[in-house]
Fold this protein.
Amino acid sequence: MSRVHIVLPSAAAAPPPAVLPDRLTDLRPSASDPFLALAKAADLAGLASVVVPYDRQGPEPLVTAAALLRATRHVTVFAGVQPWIATPQYAAKVSASLQRFSGGRFGWYLDGDAESAAFAQTAGDFWRRPDGLPEVLSEHAFPAVVLAGASGTAHLDVAGLEPDAVAAAIDERRDAGFAEFFLTVGHDPGEIYRIGEYVLPVLSQERAPSHAG
């Protein structure tokens, strides 16, 4: 079965934050924050996950993922983890905490290179070691790991495309054997709602066999 994931856009092109009146002292992000709005749209639209890629011009993915997990109920949130951000053991502990408080909805989005794969392997080994994580943190499974460019995954930039064009692009790659689709979207949550309303039903339909006889 095909699954659709949303990749958040670059923060560099994000709309400027709203200017608040001086009398307001609550500086927490509002519900209109671009990333929060996109994640909530993906959650309501029934998509599989939201990916927070590493962006040199944007906020830290792990911190952003924590905020998005708090704002959603169903989607998995993948953070763009870089091997140099911390030791694998500390990354495992932070991730275990996110797994604990999100009900196991956290994942890692890594570059598809040997260094990233080794980082994830070391963190996973530490996670499962009896003398690794504290018991209170190790009760959840190690985060799901997606390697960019892995076999069976297709990455498509669909920002601004109409739903029929998105469905056609996905369908073409389904014919080539892809099953996981990571769609980079723009900053309009309406794009995500339209994917959920018009694209997902098409993908859920049973497909006729491609051979005769």
